[in-house]
Amino acid sequence: MPETDDLALLTDAARAAGEISRGYFQRAPKAWDKPGAAGPVTEADIAVNDMLEERLRAARPGYGWLSEESPDDAARLNAARAFVIDPLDGTRAFIEGDYAWAHALAVVDNGTVTAAAIYLPMTDKLYSAARGQGAHLNGARLAVSAADALDGATVLASRTNFEPWHWVEAQVPQVSRKFRSSLAYRMSLVGEGRFDAMLSLRPTWEWDVAAGSLVVEEAGGRVTDRRGAALRFNAAEPRVNGVVAAGPRVHNEITRRLV
C-alpha cells in the first residue's frame, strides 16, 4: 500500500532529521529572524530541511514539495501527491533549550493527508499515522480522550485564543489551558489522549498542522478549521483558517461556541 510505504519513508527521514538537530541543540546555533515578521530560524532548521528535501525528493521524484524553509515552487500544485514538511516545528523552544520541538513530515494525496510522522528527538517520541491504519506513539496505538464537555477540559492553546471576542456572547469556556511551542506536538498530545483539545484561531500554515491532523484523526478525533470546515492541503495559498483538534464531542462544542 502506498500509505505504508510512504509512512516508512517518513519515519526513517524523521529519525535522520533528529540526528542532525541534536547536533545543534543547546550548542548556541546561529539564529536570525525571517523577513516579514515570519519568526525565527536557525542553522539547524536549514540543515534539516536540506537533508529532507534531498532524501525525500530522491525517493519520490513525482511528489510535490512544500516546506517552511524552502522557496515555494508552484509545480507542486500539479502533483497529485506532495510532501508537506516543517523541518523544525517549535524553533523558539529549540533556541531556548526547551525539549518541546519536533520534526513534522506528511504526505498529501489530492489535498488529504495519507501518511504522517512527528518526531521529538530529545525525548525519542515518534508519533506516526497512515490513513485507515490508526495512529501510534513508538508503536503503541493511540486514542483521543473520552472528554465530552469543553468546560473543564484540558486545552493546548496560546492565551490569545481565549479572549472574549472569539466566543459567542463573550462566554469564554472554563478550561485548563496549557501550552507547547510546537503545533505538531500539541496535536500529537491530543491524539495521545493526554489533552482533550488544541486550537489555534489565527491563519495557520499547512506545514504546522498537516502531519498532526492525521495523528488526531487516526486516533479517533476530529480536525477542522475554526469554522468546522474540513482541512485541505497543498493549496495555492498554503494556510488554513485556524485549526481545532479534539475528540468528537469536545470538537463540536468548540466550533459551536466560536464566533
Q: What are the SSEs and their pairings?
A:
Elements: H1 2-22, E1 31-33, E2 40-42, H2 43-59, E3 64-67, E4 81-89, H3 91-96, E5 102-109, E6 112-120, E7 125-130, E8 135-137, E9 140-141, E10 154-156, E11 176-178, H4 183-192, E12 197-200, E13 204-205, H5 206-218, E14 222-224, E15 239-240, E16 243-246, H6 248-257
Parallel strand pairs: 3-4, 10-11, 10-12
Antiparallel strand pairs: 1-2, 4-5, 5-6, 6-7, 7-8, 8-9, 12-16, 13-15, 14-16
Helix pairs in contact: 1-2, 4-5
Comma- or semicolon-separated keywords:
Inositol_monophosphatase-like, five-stranded mixed sheet, magnesium, 3'(2'),5'-bisphosphate nucleotidase CysQ, single chain, alpha+beta, 2 domains, Fructose-1,6-Bisphosphatase, Chain A, domain 1, D-Maltodextrin-Binding Protein, domain 2
Notes on the structure:
The chain is α+β, with helices and mostly antiparallel strands and 259 residues long. The protein folds into two domains: 2-141, Fructose-1,6-Bisphosphatase, Chain A, domain 1; 154-257, D-Maltodextrin-Binding Protein, domain 2, CATH 3.40.190.80. The protein is 30% helix and 26% strand. The chain has six helices and 16 strands. It has helices at residues 2-22, 43-59, 91-96, 183-192, 206-218, 248-257; strands at 31-33, 40-42, 64-67, 81-89, 102-109, 112-120, 125-130, 135-137, 140-141, 154-156, 176-178, 197-200, 204-205, 222-224, 239-240, 243-246. A hairpin with a 4-residue loop joins strand 6 (112-120) and strand 7. The model has no long low-confidence stretch (mean pLDDT 97).
